[in-house]
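#help-structures

NK: newbie question. if I give both the sequence and a SMILES, will the prediction place the ligand too? trying with zinc ion
OV: yes, paste both and it writes out the complex. here, I ran yours:
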Amino acid sequence: MKHNGGCKAHAVVNNISRNEHHSTVGSKDPMRGSRKVEGHFRRQLPLTECDDSDHTERIPVQFDLIYRISEYISFFLSSMATQGQVITCKAAVAYEPNKPLVIEDVQVAPPQAGEVRIKILFTALCHTDAYTWSGKDPEGLFPCILGHEAAGIVESVGEGVTEVQPGDHVIPCYQAECRECKFCKSGKTNLCGKVRTATGAGVMMNDRKSRFSVNGKPIYHFMGTSTFSQYTVVHDVSVAKIDPQAPLDKVCLLGCGVPTGLGAVWNTAKVEPGSTVAIFGLGTVGLAVAEGAKSAGASRIIGVDIDSKKYGLAKNFGVTEFVNPKDHDKPIQQVIVDLTDGGVDYSFECIGNVSVMRAALECCHKGWGTSVIIGVAASGQEISTRPFQLVTGRVWKGTAFGGFKSRSQVPWLVDKYMKKEIKIDEYITHNLTFGDINKAFDLMHEGSCLRCVLKLHE
Ligand SMILES: NC(=O)c1ccc[n+]([C@@H]2O[C@H](COP(=O)([O-])OP(=O)(O)OC[C@H]3O[C@@H](n4cnc5c(N)ncnc54)[C@H](O)[C@@H]3O)[C@@H](O)[C@H]2O)c1
Ligand SMILES: N[C@@H](CCC(=O)N[C@@H](CSCO)C(=O)NCC(=O)O)C(=O)O
Ligand SMILES: [Zn+2]
Ligand SMILES: [Zn+2]
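OV: that's the protein plus ligand as structure tokens.
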């Protein structure tokens, strides 16, 4: 008898099937059917039909467990060979602003005290990588290894690291969480001060030096993550340990864009049921805002984008109305105020354009409307509005990583994805190999690309 969907084992099989299906969308995956020791292997097991007897129902679960143990042992043995050694691997180096990234052999030093070396399996590209690469980031340093939206497996740990060990599946987090500094203890913010000066300077805290080099010349770290490398070294306070069953080629997105949008709604704005919402910019971050607003019970979710093609897609994430500023003669804030009887309860800027940030504030309702800045604006840019906008009750806020505490809450977001409570697959429009990283950046500037996931190892 075939599955009827009611047994525990069947739940596992369903999960495998779903992921298997999505992992093939838009990509030719040379890993399919192979048995490499990597994060998404579990989902590539051949499926056997089960019947209703206890015996056959247990087969997939046992098979899965055996596989996971062998995966762990195999990874453990391979990491024994590299622990304490310099690893030479491929990384995409940004030598100069806007010049194509160069994939080359990079030496990655072993982790020092309080550091973790991670084998990065999958990384996505975020608009902030392109922003720093463009040379407009005041903290941008060259040569560097960009990348901050990824997932991988711990290869080795430095002295004193207790919360992760080789073989653990992890997401590197550009926003650290040490649980000891005044930011972490305040209960008022997800920002952490412990390693921020080092990550902003492209080095590690211990010795203020980089762990990356090419032929002896140091290469800067980026955002404390540098995931455009087959191996990276991060601070232990920047590592979230996640469910080893989670597909790493999907949950890599929980390193930045998706949590940022969801958290902007849930943690920063705290949107209530029945609220009206305007979202400026319908890329991954804006769509995650829409998803968060829908789940928070917003009654109207107005998407604003200069690319009208975004509307069809945005409906799937909860956007109920669409406005293209190019279709109107009036300022966009006036268009939205007219549409909503005086303005929206909440607005979100997900572009990084300071003129749009002003419009997003000014389309909020007098007395209570709150606008959240998410977009990252270029060096030298400043925001402005008439102070009267704030005097009359509008509130201007900003958010980093959606207010989520990284080490504590990224694993929770992974679990929510595994329970199908949040989307991830729907944001992945492209899958490419590491060698195509420059093509992936080109795609980012095309309207059809939300997130492109790169596979770092063959
Ligand atoms: N604060 C944070 O923690 C955080 C985290 C992730 C990303 N970001 C930033 O968020 C922003 C969005 O990231 P993304 O990956 O979704 O980018 P994206 O480029 O995919 O999306 C931007 C969208 O804005 C639209 N747009 C551009 N100019 C516009 C205009 N004048 N009016 C209306 N729409 C316009 C584009 O058509 C596009 O759909 C970036 O600035 C990124 O750096 C911030
Ligand atoms: N380095 C830039 C600021 C960049 C920025 O604002 N980064 C966001 C995350 S963007 C992720 O895609 C952030 O979280 N900032 C808080 C922090 O970096 O501590 C500049 O100097 O202008
Ligand atoms: Zn990002
Ligand atoms: Zn801290």
